[in-house]
Design goal:
The structure holds two protein chains of two kinds. By secondary structure, chain A is of the alpha/beta class. Chain A has 18 helices and 24 strands. The longest helix of chain A has 20 residues. The radius of gyration of chain A is 28 Å and the shape is globular. Chain B is α/β, with parallel strands linked by helices. Chain B has two domains: about 90 residues, no CATH class; about 140 residues, 3-Layer(bba) Sandwich (FAD/NAD(P)-binding domain). Chains A and B meet through strand 1, helix 1, strand 4, strand 5 and helix 3 of A and helix 1, helix 2, strand 3, strand 4 and helix 3 of B. Strand 5 of chain A pairs antiparallel with strand 3 of chain B, so a sheet runs across the interface.
């Protein structure tokens, strides 16, 4: 009979005891601990003991040498699932960077290490050097290196923030920019528009306020432009001949193309349905937040690597998806979410002047919608709603209203964008929802709204708005822009409907490689995540590029 | 100057501004009817000052000084991470307590006063291999406290976790008295009849430890140089205040989030304390 395999999670007293009991019963045990060493010698909680019996745990030593126990310290269980009566796991065992079998415990390393950091094992009461014991009782050395600083951890592409901010502090701005470009090919754009999850994680917020990480990135990107330097993005000397097609020149597609070109791929073509690059960065983010000239420059730098962008080419119309698949070795789909959701209320499709936010922003960005008059009502509370309102205000609408069914507190838009909109004179109406679009002679004349009040929190954790009976009122309007959410438009797939999709109409992909269920087809960005921030689309592009490289090289 | 999250200290430097640099913008009047970029970017001086605010959250810098110094060549930066795909017949989840305690009641002053510690911190302090080699010291001034108060946070007499928490408190009190000279320890907590019947006489015999049945209310001090005032409601419902040089909170441990996630994925109950 096969020996039973047991996984024990946790290297504390309880875990060590469980491991020993199982091991003594003849079972093979794997003991996983998150920290670099077991910490089982503690003050007992289950019996009153004499002082000399504290911090003594003979079971710890026993477990460490037991032949049936394998100890995986500094390890994290990344995946676990039940399959055919077994429990399949994926465990990341981090490197201690010290070979403790060779270590003679002379402590010379501790003497010379210049890093003095708070000792987590001592609950922050003392300090340790970067190379030191984790738990002095087990006397195993480790180097704390692998753990990223919190900002880098929070960044979807894991930019070396500490590194590039530090270089700015030293006045080495171009080195800083080069470091950013190691992982992000569009620093000037992201440095302007990123909602910066890194800053939300920054440890300095507990002292005063987080570092302005995002704007520092913009700063170094601007330095290069101010000094009129045109950098060259390097590509590997070893070249690969495979043909790769990328659908969409947005942040995901551009990054994927960049990363593949850098790896040495020479035949990369991006198919873009619009006449301009950047995807949502061009047609969704307004010019006043991200100047097109700057975006164009960053796209040009990527194209200089030998990447072709075919504009005005819509897959499914100009070229079928099957054809694309057939004529390429790999396909990356980064088509984004460019279809505005409907309000699903009466009158929505009956009158001229109702235009969803995606279309509204795109037409303005492409110059086909130049000005507006009368009153504009934007419906929604996300960033696209705020952008639409602020764009409308600039286009010359006499009055701009934003109607949102919850309150300011529940608004998903970045707070600083809401502030700016208010500052510019956009009228924000909270706790109001549209119930009907009204019109006269085929054109919109107003929106009938109903007042809402907040009830119990729903699945999103936000309080659910409930209509107040009989509270309907009408706001006059000549243009109405619903900005409630966006979804992917997957019509380009045509008949190839073999793709596994989620219930949100996005691609289901392998979380490690971005591979779809169809061989050779990868996806990333909003078309996988649903509408999300640009830096996460960049991360999706990077994942796809790495996935495609592994796929092509192992064929 | 206190790094509030953990009651840690950070030294403010004159050349590092405490305030975050604001982004310069064009005025609202300049924005109407045009799409000119609003934010104008940091001037170099501002950027450098802002960058200097970075605490550079310290980890190994890769300077390789230790590597150069290590005679047995045990230090190896290239030792890789490993990803293991393993199959098991059974998974046993045990409770991780590291940093998994609930935030203590803010009234008890943790994070506000450097000489208010959690039980996990005090446990490390009492360890012979801990930061003070086993001696109880006030992190505020490095002095040996004359009086340590150990207070129970947020548990009633009926709480099933109370006995384990109290036993830890008693063991810590004994250890503290044994390792630190002339220290008095007071343990303030609600007590269950069951606990009293089983342990009270044993605890009353421990020299240096006073066990008080009561519910801790607040910890604070009037002036920086004063000892801490520990207020509690006694058994007879009176409010009593005593002075202490070091306060240790018996926290309510909670199951770590990653364990709850694992339990959910395995469709089993998460381990509990």
């Amino acid at each position: 009979m096969e020996t039973k395999e047991v996984l024990v999670v946790g290297g504390g007293p309880e875990g060590v005891r469980a491991a020993l009991e199982k091991a003594q019963a003849g079972v093979r045990v794997t003991l996983v601990e998150r920290f670099p060493a077991l910490g089982a010698a503690r003050i007992p909680r289950d019996r009153i003991v004499a002082p000399d019996a504290c911090f003594v745990n003979p079971e710890l030593e026993e477990a460490r040498v037991h032949p049936n126990i394998r100890i995986l310290a500094y390890s994290e269980i990344q995946k676990v699932r039940r399959e055919n009566g077994k429990i399949q796991t994926r465990i990341l065992k981090r490197s201690l960077r010290v070979d403790n079998d060779k270590c003679t415990d002379c402590k010379a390393c501790i003497q010379v290490c210049p890093v003095n950091m708070l000792d987590d094992f001592d609950e922050g009461l003392g300090f340790r050097t970067a190379v030191d014991y984790f738990n002095p009782q087990t006397a195993e050395f480790n180097i704390f290196k692998e753990d990223m600083p919190v900002c880098q951890q929070a960044c979807p592409v894991h930019l070396d923030i500490r590194g590039y901010v530090g270089r700015i502090a030293d006045g080495r701005h171009l080195e800083s920019l080069a470091l950013i470009r190691e992982r992000l090919p569009i620093p000037g754009s992201i440095g302007r528009i990123c909602p910066h999850p890194c800053e939300s994680a920054c440890n300095r917020q507990y002292l005063d306020a987080p570092i302005s990480i995002c704007f520092l990135k913009r700063f170094v990107a601007d330095v290069e432009i101010a000094r009129e330097i045109t950098p060259a993005y390097k590509t590997a000397s070893q070249k690969f001949p495979e043909k790769i097609a990328i659908i969409g020149a947005g942040p995901a597609g551009l990054t994927c193309a960049h990363d593949l070109a850098r790896l040495g791929y020479e035949n990369i073509t991006i198919y873009e349905s619009l006449p301009v690059p950047g995807g949502y960065l061009w047609v969704g983010i307004p010019e006043y937040r991200l100047p097109k000239k700057l975006l164009q420059r960053e796209v040009d730098l990527i194209c200089e690597m030998g990447i072709e962008i075919r504009y005005n080419t819509r897959i499914g119309e100009d070229i079928s998806f099957e054809e694309l698949q057939k004529s390429n070795d790999a396909v990356f789909i980064g088509a984004g979410c460019h279809r505005g959701l409907k309000l699903r209320i009466p009158g929505e499709d009956d009158f001229e002047g109702v235009v969803d936010c995606v279309t509204f922003l795109r037409e303005q960005a492409l110059g086909t919608r130049k000005s507006g008059t009368g009153k504009l009502i934007v419906i929604g509370g996300g960033n696209a709603a705020i952008d639409s309102a602020r764009v409308g205000w600039r286009m010359g609408f006499d009055e701009v209203y934003l109607v949102y069914r919850r309150t300011r507190r529940e608004m998903p838009a970045n707070s600083w964008e809401v502030d700016a909109a208010e500052h510019e004179g956009v009228v924000l109406q909270y706790l109001a929802a549209p119930v009907e679009i009204l019109g006269k002679n085929g054109a919109v004349s107003g929106v009938k709204c109903i007042q809402m009040k907040l009830g119990k929190p729903d699945a999103s954790g936000r309080r659910r708005p409930i209509p107040v009976k009989g509270s309907e009122y009408v706001i006059d309007a000549q243009t109405v822009v619903p900005a409630i959410s966006q979804t992917a438009n997957l019509e380009f797939l045509g008949k190839s409907t073999e793709f596994r999709l989620t219930r949100w109409n996005t691609f289901e992909v392998d979380p490690d490689t971005g591979a779809t269920n169809i061989e050779g087809v990868f996806a990333g960005g909003d078309v996988v995540s649903g509408p999300d921030i640009a830096i996460r689309a960049v991360a999706g592009g990077k994942r796809g590029a790495a996935g495609i490289h592994t796929y092509l090289r192992s064929r | 100057m206190v790094y509030e999250k953990q009651g840690r200290y950070i030294i403010p430097f004159d050349d590092v501004p405490a305030d975050r640099a604001p982004m310069p913008e064009i005025s609202v009047d300049e924005r109407r009817n045009n799409f000119v970029e609003i934010e104008t970017g940091f001037p170099e001086e501002t950027a450098i000052r802002e960058a200097k605010r970075c605490l550079s959250c310290r980890r190994c810098l890769g300077c390789a000084l230790c590597w150069a110094e290590c005679k047995p060549e045990a230090i190896d930066f290239s030792l890789p991470d490993e990803t293991l795909e393993l199959a098991f017949d059974e998974v046993v989840l045990t409770c991780g307590q590291d940093n998994a305690f609930c935030d203590p009641d803010p009234e008890l002053g943790f994070g506000r006063y450097a000489d208010v510690l959690t039980d996990l911190q005090f446990e490390r302090m009492l360890s012979p291999t801990g930061p003070t080699d086993g001696l109880a010291l006030s992190p505020l001034d490095g002095r040996i406290p004359a009086h340590v108060a150990i207070v129970q946070d947020g548990r009633s007499a009926e709480d099933p976790g109370l006995p384990a928490s109290l036993i830890l408190g008693v063991n810590m009190a004994q250890l503290c008295s044994a390792q630190t000279r002339d220290v008095k320890v007071t343990l303030i907590s609600p007590l269950s009849d069951e606990f009293k019947a089983r342990y009270e006489s044993q605890i009353r015999q421990i020299t240096g430890l006073t066990l008080i049945e009561g519910t801790p209310l607040s910890v604070g001090r009037e002036n920086d140089s004063d000892p801490l005032n520990v207020a509690y409601t006694s058994r007879s419902d009176e409010k009593v205040t005593i002075a202490a040089d070091l306060v240790v909170i018996l926290t309510r441990p909670d199951t770590a989030a990653y364990l709850r996630d694992l339990a959910r994925q395995l469709d089993t109950a998460p381990p509990a304390f």
